[in-house]
From TrEMBL:
GO terms for molecular function: nucleotide binding; oxidoreductase activity. Residues 4-123 form the Gfo/Idh/MocA-like oxidoreductase N-terminal domain. Pfam families: GFO_IDH_MocA, GFO_IDH_MocA_C3. This is Gfo/Idh/MocA family oxidoreductase. Keywords: Oxidoreductase, Plasmid. It comes from the Bacteria. Gene3D superfamilies: Dihydrodipicolinate Reductase, domain 2, NAD(P)-binding Rossmann-like Domain. Residues 136-256 form the GFO/IDH/MocA-like oxidoreductase domain. It comes from Ensifer adhaerens.
Length: 344
């Protein structure tokens, strides 16, 4: 089946979506853009011209464009404050919906969208593209293999100094709300564990060019007595980590270091004597399916395959709400100065 899709929100992010749709052979075959929606008609028209989208429905009213285009899918790329209304409109029309992150502007809205999707018997999934990269998939396979023994902890450092300008520099909780969900979701995915509680200290360091919350340290309690610690800053100049963070993952038999790029260093204990036991390197397995390592395009492909098969996509809202709960749990903990139980 070829799906008719409307894209809502025609700013800079929309171009990444349209490139992903054109770069994937599967998506070129399975998805046809039939409508664009934006608060500014001229912005939508300019996007249509740039990507040679002729003969489609363009407008400022989402329900009208969905109806006139006879859409099957809605791609939601609006600002978080508008997400609830946009997703609700798509589900009411009978569309499956794929949204930009975050899933919602609050946990209450996220839970409401889960109810609406269930009532409509439609999928509402989220673009959590960072879990569709080779390193994250490979580490999950290593953890599942038990080569490191039983998983005990994941630790990550995220230190960058990007000067975005614009709305991010004026946001509350900018690091936790706008970026950390990628890392939190990766920790959940790689470990296969559920978040239970968090204690977080959030602050704005001296010299920060952000208005609020450019740095945070968080300790998460995961299921099965696994710990996840996060140290992050978006105003740390001079020694950048990868955008995927730098990781140390420990098991009962060994440790994996990952730089967030192409360098892995995994060692397990082989000796049985001595003050410090002998260790030897082990290989990190390759990904089973290279189609799952193309970031944004892989998320959309996973979404389409799930619709075709009548299954649940990997980044369905029923899963992604757990990562969102980690974000809001950390924000609540930082605000109140206490450990917070996480409940999605």
């Amino acid at each position: 089946m070829r799906y008719r899709a409307v894209l809502c929100g025609c700013g800079a992010m929309a171009k990444g979506w349209l490139r992903a749709l054109t770069e994937s052979e599967l998506l070129r075959v399975k998805v046809e853009i039939v409508g664009l929606v934006d608060l500014d008609q001229a912005t939508a028209e300019a996007l249509a011209t740039e990507f040679n989208l002729g003969g489609i429905v363009i407008g400022t009213d989402l329900p009208t464009v969905l109806r006139e285009s006879r859409a099957d899918l809605l791609f939601d790329i609006v600002v978080p404050a508008a997400r609830r209304a946009v997703v609700a409109a798509g589900l009411a029309h009978g569309c499956h919906v794929l949204s930009e992150k975050p899933m919602a502007a609050s946990l209450g809205e996220a839970r409401e969208l889960r109810r609406l999707a269930a009532a409509a018997s439609r999928i509402h999934a989220i673009v959590q593209n960072r879990r569709f990269i080779s390193g994250v998939r490979r580490i999950r396979r290593l953890i599942e293999s038990l080569v490191l023994g039983e998983l005990t902890a994941l630790h990550c450092d995220f230190f960058l100094g990007p000067h975005f300008g614009g709305f991010r520099e004026q946001m509350d909780n900018v690091l936790l709300l706008d970026m950390a969900i990628h890392t939190f979701d990766a920790a959940r995915f790689m470990s296969g564990k559920d978040p239970l509680a968090v204690y977080c200290h959030e602050y704005n360091p001296k010299g920060s060019w952000y208005r609020h919350g450019a740095a945070a340290n968080a300790i998460f309690e995961f299921s099965d007595n696994v710990a996840f610690t996060y140290r992050g800053s978006w105003c740390a100049e001079g020694a950048n980590t990868s955008w995927e963070s730098a990781w140390r993952i420990t098991g009962s038999k060994g440790t994996l270091l990952w730089d967030g790029g192409d360098r892995f260093d995994a060692k397990v204990v082989t000796g049985q004597e001595g003050f410090m036991r002998t260790v030897e390197p082990v290989a990190v397995p390759d990904t089973e399916d290279l189609a799952d390592t193309n970031g944004h395009a892989s998320v959309i492909e996973n979404f389409i395959r799930a619709i075709d098969a009548g299954t649940v996509p990997e980044t369905d809202g029923s899963d992604n709400i757990k990562s969102l709960a980690m974000v809001f749990g950390a924000i609540d903990s930082a605000r109140d100065g206490k450990r917070v139980t996480i409940a999605a």
